[in-house]
Amino acid sequence: MIGRLKLAYVTLELRHVPAWHAFLQGLLEAPALAAAQRHLRVQAGKADDIAAVGLELADEAARAELAARLGRAGVASSDVDGKLVFHDPLGTRIEAAVADAGTQDDTGFGHVVLAARDLATMECFYVGALGLGVTERLAARVGPLDVRGTFLHCNPRHHSIALLDLPQRRRLNHLMLEAGSLREVLRAHDRARAGRMPFSLELGEHPDPDATLSFYLRTPAGFDLEIGAGGREIQPAGWREGSQSTTSAWGHSPTLGLKLRAAANLLAARLGA
Length: 273
Hints:
It is built from six helices and 16 strands. By secondary structure, the chain is of the alpha/beta class.
């Protein structure tokens, strides 16, 4: 692993930027909203998908080490405004920069989950080239889908990036924002209910060693946003990867809307095969 690394921000390309801002304003209270807008950057476009992932490195030595590692792996990179810029196998832009003073102690704002039909190639990039560690692997039956995935860490957070083999065209499956407490999760859940926002997964808890309590909403862009808290940290040094056959210890019941979208994506994938 390249020293201390963390997920700093995600840039989203959205068709309807005002709808995105209205969605966040209806869900989050002022302090959480300010943090979300800092970490979830938006630009206008047609994709309704992820455009870039922003990573923070501990220092210049870590930046140089990452550049050398990418070079050895044959991954082209360039310096753009002080950021080391490169792309993953699906074309997602990654921007790595040295952390500002005062932001070096936390583990990032949450996590990002990418859909990857070629799981091996994506894992080779994020583990082999970028240097993330495998926390655990998933092999589970979720409704009509057999889901395989890899959860990756770059600091004590259980996962900052996850890869799921899912039949969807959009690269982004969901984003997770970490709330400051379980109480904040429940307050956001209440606001979502009051605002009649479209849930994808009801309130629930992920299994150990993650143990995050969360819920998922479908955003106006079509991907999901997870709001959660209470996740446990791991010890990256000497960590031995685990395995999971379920996505939740309890709850996280899928809504009808999610089931219909999953079935449609599966049918489209089979017809396109």
